[in-house]
Design goal:
The complex is a heterodimer of chains A (about 290) and B (about 350).
Chain A lengths: L1 H7 L3 H28 L3 H6 L13 H40 L6 H10 L6 H14 L2 H4 L4 H4 L2 H27 L3 H9 L4 H12 L1 H17 L2 H6 L8 H11 L4 H21 L1 H12 L1
Chain B lengths: L2 H6 L13 H17 L2 H43 L16 H11 L16 H31 L6 H9 L6 H11 L6 H8 L16 H27 L2 H9 L4 H9 L4 H17 L2 H7 L10 H11 L3 H28 L4
The chains are: A mainly alpha (about 290), B mainly alpha (about 350).
Chain lengths: ~290, ~350
């Protein structure tokens, strides 16, 4: 297909193609470019200079330090619940996908449907019960009353469990698509040899799942880190505010201080940006699998 | 017993003795063993498949219970709350349940001017009307345009270009960012005095088009939709790219032999084959459009004004802003019903295609 165009319109078509591609690059990167140059400008600088021109005379790194200072506790809190929730949902997803794919019993598809439908639930439709649940039925502050460090983190514990639970459907789907492609004769051979279900998972499936774990962990980490809605509803104690909440608050209190806001936005995005730059391929796989 | 597994995994050691004649041992050993314990082979088979269900339970039941509790239990509870008249600080009273909240919502929503609803005329409809109207506008416009942009990107990227990975990575990048982050970026982009959009318009001599993008009621919602398309079109590109790559190359060849020109070829031969990609991407986009909240919350707070209010925002405001829990739950159920209306046919479609 590409050869035909090169033959028909030598050069010109290709040039137009690359111009279009680069134009789109400009569109996709301009908010980030404008953000990053603004973050290095002084208050006066960003009002007087063009929003996409790099900082020259008005260069400063102060916004970064100030923004980091304001977001520091949020960054810690976010890491505290995001990492365990990511790992837990991936583990649950892998186990469930195995139990629903590589074993042989009737009704699997129906159970699987119930799992997968959970991906598409609008979170709004569970918000009120969720806030009730974590306040009255299971209150981590009361359960962990014996241990102050845990009781003080009750909002984060609620977020950890909640995100793990709502991550299960998507993780199950991601692992399921992978496990479906595993050669059944291999599993059959192990079964004939007397290996039990648990053993097959541990010795065959799990080692084969490592690439999928990378995909799932990256997808879940990005999702959970980026979430704001659950945190708004479940975190009561300001000491437990997660980074997206603090960034949103920073924007509300620092009206018009775009240099500070942009620096804060980049600091908040840094973990997911790093993960994306290193594991872009796997992120794309997770995103594509999440839809299909 | 261990040998085939260790063989498959390339282990040596434990199964060393079996390496000599693995097939004989794998077959003979097990059948003889189970036969001696459970009688005829047939009954052993059925026993295994019966207990396979039981033995698979430890794997999916814990996850299933969490999902059942948090997804289905919570939705059921939410429905129950929507039938009460719970508000304020007390506890819900489950004694008298009725559909009054739903009646109220739809009565209010229908009282707006639906005929000219899509033209921004200054009618003062109730918030239900605006939230529902804007949700529909967002859902349709966002989904359609994001799909088109994503398809165009996919076609561009699929044409044997250099640095394909770099281009793809750049187009998908916004998808890895939080809505809190992108809402901040776009607030700055749309800033009327020194934001990039107005600056660029002035630079290219279109100064007349500069606007107060996110405070003018006429443009607010479209400004939001534009930013969301920016963020999601990379996702559509990825889905379409996978679809394009799955089309056998001889189809391109056939189209070429027929003398179809490029545009025609894409329209007639390629696009129809991308239906599955379109459906799955559209479902994800539409469901997202229903719950879009974070972006609007950061850009406008809980009161975006009637021109940009959506059901997801109204639900949050009613519940957690003014503690009208029952009414908030009602709006939540309407959102859920809308999502179900999109997802149920989709899951059925995927099931029919054997894609689940």
């Amino acid at each position: 297909m590409a050869e035909s165009t090169t033959r028909r319109g030598p050069g010109l078509n290709r040039i137009a193609l690359y111009v279009a591609l680069l134009l789109m690059v400009v569109v996709y990167l301009s908010p980030l470019e404008s953000g990053i140059v603004t973050a290095f400008k002084t208050q006066q600088g960003f009002f007087e200079t063009s929003p996409f021109a790099p900082a020259l005379g008005e260069f400063t790194v102060d916004p970064w330090f100030e923004a980091f200072d304001r977001l520091r506790s949020g960054l810690v809190n976010s890491l505290l619940f995001t990492i365990p929730a990511t790992v837990l949902s991936a583990l649950f997803g892998s186990l469930a996908a195995y139990g629903l794919t590589n074993t042989d019993w009737k009704g699997q598809t129906f159970v699987l449907m119930l799992f997968i439908a959970g991906i598409f639930i609008p979170y709004q439709s569970v918000l009120v019960p969720l806030s009730q649940f974590w306040a009255t039925i299971v209150n981590p502050a009361e359960i962990f009353a014996f241990s102050d460090p845990l009781a003080n983190r009750s909002g984060l514990i609620a977020l950890l469990v909640t995100h793990s639970a709502y991550g299960i459907p998507i993780c199950t789907l991601l692992f399921r698509s992978h496990y479906k492609s595993i050669d059944t004769s291999m599993l059959e051979a192990a079964r004939l040899d007397g290996a039990g279900i648990a053993k097959i998972y541990w010795r065959i499936i799990l080692p084969l799942s490592i690439p999928m774990f990378v995909v799932t962990l990256i997808y879940q980490f990005t999702n959970i880190w980026n979430d704001l809605l659950f945190a708004l509803v479940l975190v009561g104690n300001p000491a437990n505010d997660v980074v997206t909440m603090e960034l949103s608050a920073l924007q509300g209190s620092m009206v018009g201080q775009y240099n500070l806001q942009m620096a804060g936005a980049f600091i908040t995005a840094l973990p997911t940006l790093l993960v994306y730059i290193i594991f872009g391929e796997q992120f794309a796989e997770g995103v594509a699998g999440g839809g299909a | 017993m261990r040998s085939p597994i260790s063989l498959l995994r390339g282990d040596s050691g434990a199964g060393r003795s079996a390496d000599d004649e693995p097939s004989v041992r794998a077959d003979g050993g097990t059948v003889a063993e189970s036969g001696s314990e459970d009688g005829p082979i047939e009954s052993a088979r059925s026993r295994i498949s019966d207990s396979e269900f039981v033995r698979s339970m430890p794997f999916w039941v814990p996850a299933g219970l969490l999902t059942a509790l948090f997804v289905y239990g919570a939705i059921g509870w939410n429905f129950l709350i929507s039938l009460t008249d719970w508000s304020g600080l007390g506890d819900p009273n489950y004694g008298s349940l009725d559909l009054g909240n739903y009646g109220e919502f739809f009565a209010e929503a229908w009282s707006g001017d639906w005929l000219f609803g899509f033209v921004p005329i200054p009618v003062n409809g109730p918030q239900e009307y605006w939230a529902l109207r804007n949700t529909i506008v967002l859902l349709v416009l966002f989904t359609v345009v994001a799909l088109i942009v994503g398809l165009l990107l996919a076609i561009l990227v699929d044409r044997n270009i250099r640095f394909e990975n770099t281009f793809r990575t750049i187009y998908l990048l916004p998808m890895s960012l939080s809505f809190v982050v992108t809402a901040l970026f776009w607030s700055w982009m749309y800033n009327p005095t020194s934001g990039m959009i107005n600056e660029v318009l002035q630079m290219v001599g279109l100064g007349g088009l500069t606007m107060q993008w996110i405070s003018d009621p006429q443009t607010k919602l479209f400004a939001v939709i534009f930013a969301l398309i920016w963020q999601f079109s990379g996702y559509c590109m990825v889905v379409y790219l996978a679809g394009l790559r799955a089309i056998p190359t001889d189809q391109y060849e056939a189209a070429k032999v027929d003398g179809a020109n490029l545009l025609k070829m894409y329209w007639r031969v390629i696009v129809p084959q991308l239906r599955a990609s379109t459906v799955s991407a559209a479902v994800v986009l539409m469901v997202f459009a229903l719950k879009a909240f974070d972006f609007l919350y950061v850009m406008f707070g809980t009161r975006p004004g009637q021109s940009a209010d959506i059901l997801a925002m109204m639900m949050y405001r009613e519940s957690f802003g003014v503690t009208n829990w029952a009414y908030g739950s009602t709006i939540a159920m309407i959102l859920f019903a809308l999502a179900l209306g999109i997802v149920a046919p989709y899951l059925y479609y995927e099931y029919q295609r054997g894609e689940l």
